[in-house]
Specification:
Blueprint: H1 9-19, E1 41-45, E2 48-51, E3 56-59, H2 74-84, H3 95-107, E4 113-117, H4 120-135, E5 139-144, E6 156-157, E7 167-168, H5 175-178, E8 181-185, H6 189-198, E9 203-208, H7 224-235, E10 238-242, H8 254-259, E11 265-268, E12 279-283, H9 285-288, H10 307-322, H11 325-347, E13 352-356, E14 359-363, H12 372-376, H13 380-392, E15 395-396, H14 413-430
Parallel strand pairs: 3-15, 5-8, 5-9, 9-10, 10-11
Antiparallel strand pairs: 1-2, 2-3, 4-12, 6-7, 11-12, 13-14
This protein binds pyridoxal-5'-phosphate.
The site of pyridoxal-5'-phosphate (PLP) has 15 residues, from helix 4.
């Protein structure tokens, strides 16, 4: 490992910026939203991440969700060691794919058949194609503030009103590519009803994060998912749960199990790879049987079902299934929230916390947050100061107000207490 330690972080950053836009392979890593120099990571273990200069941080990013057991848990590392020598990719079917597919389908009733892909983006893009192919309809519905990866038809925000045309959120997404995407406010069942009534018989699918985890953490309002399910059934719309964050994170039976609502299709990612790059999409048999080569809807992937990624996913899911991990993870998260709530009150910080089981976020909005508009009302300048303060105290938070915190099982009570002591110190300076 020592060859990766290099005090000259600035020099690495300079080389990175020479070759990769912003010096990164995913925009959030550039730390633009927090106005800090990005951290360059050398290694990580358990709850800790170490940068190339040898500084160690308590990590609440945990790769944005996959690392429920913390970094490099021995049982995943051992699994990878054992299988790496047998070949890292073949271009043929392996028993590992079948094993992971059986585990996922066994935990998720609506997922009767599935396909492995390499990322969440691929999973959502492919699920939407299947829904369109099966229904023969073009339009799709998404909710503002929900993120489903970076495929063209999903990079859209609402226009001036519910029934006006959406607006691309990135150049390069030409209007024709989002013309069939309808955008609805999250947690607003009345707006959805109106939108679907105005587009009767034209909507192929509705995609939703059952717990919004890409605008901080915004849980579904009471009855919201049930109403979404009813409306989709009534209109013959394929309901897609994007469980790329929530799948096997909230519970072994994912958000569908927690809320008692089964979609028609589902997308997974992050957690099911055990820390390696994986995605999957699946759903009702009659839908998935339309996928090539069984049916006419094309989707493929040279590295899909990668044996090492499958083994890491299997190792992770085995632990998730066999041990009392979720209660422990929820307890950790609730402890963190209760501690932070106390400190918000102690220091009079204009902030509130949001938690759904083991998904947590601190919003710099004194009002409880339940919608995209309320998320957008957060004081991002204050978050920036909080982030920098915490970083100086040795705690790594997501470099954006709009990401969830991901404590892991490696975050022991002592580590959580150390974190709360840092929050106490930093809050005292925010006033
Ligand atoms: C992360 C995420 C994606 C995209 O997954 P990638 O692997 O980054 O392509 C899609 N949907 C949700 C809900 C996500 O959190």
């Amino acid at each position: 490992m020592s060859e990766y330690l290099n005090n000259d972080q600035a020099e690495i950053l300079k080389r990175a910026r020479q070759l990769m836009p912003g010096g990164v392979n995913s925009p959030v890593r550039a730390f633009g939203a927090v106005d800090c120099e990005p951290v360059i990571v050398a290694s990580a273990k358990g709850a800790y991440i170490t940068d190339v200069a040898g500084r160690r941080y308590i990590d609440y990013v945990c790769s944005y969700g996959p690392l429920i057991f913390g970094h490099a848990p021995e049982f995943v590392v051992d699994e990878l060691r054992e299988f790496a020598g047998r070949g890292t990719t073949y271009g043929f079917t392996t028993p590992h794919e079948v094993e992971l597919a059986e585990m996922i389908a066994g935990a998720y009733p609506a997922c009767e058949m599935l396909r492995m892909v390499n990322s969440g983006t691929e999973a959502t893009m492919s699920a939407i194609r299947v829904a369109r192919g099966c229904t023969g309809r073009d339009k799709i519905v998404k909710f503002e503030g929900c993120y489903h990866g970076h495929s063209d038809s999903l990079l859209v925000k609402s226009g001036s009103g519910l029934l006006t045309q959406g607006v691309p959120t990135s150049p390069g997404v030409v209007p024709a590519l989002i013309a069939e995407t309808l955008v609805c406010p999250y947690n607003d069942a009345a707006a959805l009803e109106q939108l679907l009534a105005a587009n009767r018989g034209q909507v192929a699918c509705l995609i939703v994060e059952p717990v919004a985890g890409n605008m901080g953490v915004v849980p579904p309002a009471e009855g919201f998912l049930q109403r979404v399910r009813e409306l989709c059934t009534e209109h013959g719309i394929v309901l897609i749960f994007d469980e790329v964050i929530t799948g096997f994170r909230l519970d072994y039976h994912s958000a569908a199990g927690v809320f008692g609502v089964q979609p028609d299709m589902v997308c997974f990612g992050k957690i099911i790879g055990g820390g390696l790059p994986v995605g999957a999409y699946g759903g009702k048999r009659e839908l998935m049987e339309q996928v090539s080569p069984l049916g006419p809807i094309y989707q493929g992937g040279t590295l899909s079902g990668n044996p090492l990624a499958m083994r890491a996913g299997i190792a992770a899911l085995r632990r998730l299934r066999d041990e009392e991990v979720y209660p422990a993870l929820i307890e950790n998260t609730a402890y963190l929230q209760a501690g932070i709530d106390k400190l918000i009150a102690k220091h009079g910080v204009p902030a509130s916390t949001s938690r759904c089981l083991d998904m947590f976020c601190l919003f710099f909005n004194p009002q409880p947050v339940g919608s995209y508009a309320e998320v957008m009302a957060c004081d991002t300048a204050l978050y920036r100061r909080f982030f920098a303060g915490m970083l100086a105290e040795g705690v790594m938070l997501a470099p954006s107000q709009f990401e969830a915190w991901f404590p892991s099982l490696a975050h022991t009570r002592a580590i959580l207490d150390e974190t709360l002591a840092a929050v106490d110190k930093v809050f005292a300076k925010l006033g």
